[in-house]
Amino acid sequence: MLLSSCSCCLLSLLICPLCSACVDFFFTDKSLLDMSNTKPKAESQSDEAEGPDGGWGWVLVGALFISTSLVFGLMRSLGIFFVEFVQYFEESAQAISWISSTGLAAQQFFSPLGAALCNAYDARVVVMTGGCLAGLGLILASQATCLLHLYLTMGVISGLGWGLVFTPMVATVMANFTRRRTLALGLGFSSIGLSSFAFNPLFQFLVEMYAWRGALLILGGLSLNIVPCGALIRPQRRSKAPAKVDSENRSSCAAVLHRVSSHLELSLLFERPYITYTLAVTLLNVGYFVPYFHLVAHSRQCGFSEYQAAFVMSAAGATDILGRIVSGWFSDLGHFRLIHLLTSWTTLAGVFIMLLPVSSLSGSYTALMAISLLYGFCSGALTSLVFAVIPMIVGVQRTMGGLGLLQLIESSAGLLGTPLSGLLKDVTGNYVASFLVSGSFLVLGTLTMTTLPHYFSCTDPPLPSPDDKDKGLHQELEQMHSSQSDINYRGVNDLAGEVTNKPKECVG
Fold it and tell me: Within 12-55, where are the H helices?
């Protein structure tokens, strides 16, 4: 009934100026939700109360567990191939570092694309497509004959696939949890540490058995397991009513720009808290991944064997698992604000990164292992909080877009961090300066977080209203119909003036 009445309003817009209000009412998210929901109101409310923090959400946590291990767990373990590429292509450490750095930057750069596609279409299809691209890039990389080939395959193609996988999976899990959100993310991200623990010795074994080409071919097939993980995401139920109205406004340039802006959540770029937090995470991202790419090479340069060097990263991956779970559990207790816990873990991680080369100067494998264990715990503890803080800043309704834009902005840091570390190694001859500079970036990111509004408050500020997103939509609709509405109002007022003036002339 509502659809038919608003259709009549659209057709009679030139006659009735009040029908623009009908159009605005039709476009609001609340009305669409009421039309698409056929259940009684009480039943829908009970479903919403029972849905978060349980049920199918734990299945999605399992899917996140596997997919993140095949994205960041695999990405962290590519340091095994770093030494092989240096020897095979006879290039500098800086040139080889661009391979992993390009993949990381591509993953973050294409994350807004993954978020926008999920907002416009279906997260299931997006994640499954990303899994296919991730595996295809590694398979093609196994046939590389030059570094440019590796930049395009392991960097761009696999990075695009990782970008289409990570953000939609994280946002899907966050949408299914409220009270246990940080714990759910911690459990899902714990696979990164577990895979780092298992993948480093495994990749070293594959390289020795099949050389680096055969190892990359096997990893490409392993990455295809992301596809069934994406298939576990339930398709979103969409109303057919918005499609009908969108087709009528598709020719309008303003409407197209508004849809693109809403899918990408570009309005967040004008909000100071989000920009400040994004800058802090970007600084953190410059040095965060450096140990995962260069710690194995640093350990071998210090005189340790290949398996000893690989086991250093495996040990850090083991404590990484513990750090994610403990951090998620402790954060959900609510004793401290998430942003305060995040800055604490980030500072500790930065300090331990700077201590990594210092501990190995004496040639003590025990000291290097101890610092690696502490670094792994702190680096794992901060990861879940980085994403869990986003809904506290932008609101749950805009989490998908917030995650995508965050990944896009910090992609520049991921692109430059590892090559900067490789350049410092080429200049100094060792990795000491590389780790010192990398750790300082994490500390600098912590200082930036302290400038967030209400940072020193003991309680969280009120969450952004879900209606904030609709304000821009209403403003856009008002602009689209303002000129036509003005004509209608003038026409009606002129008509009213003629009607009211005629009796006055008759009375006179």
Answer: 19-27, 29-36, 41-50
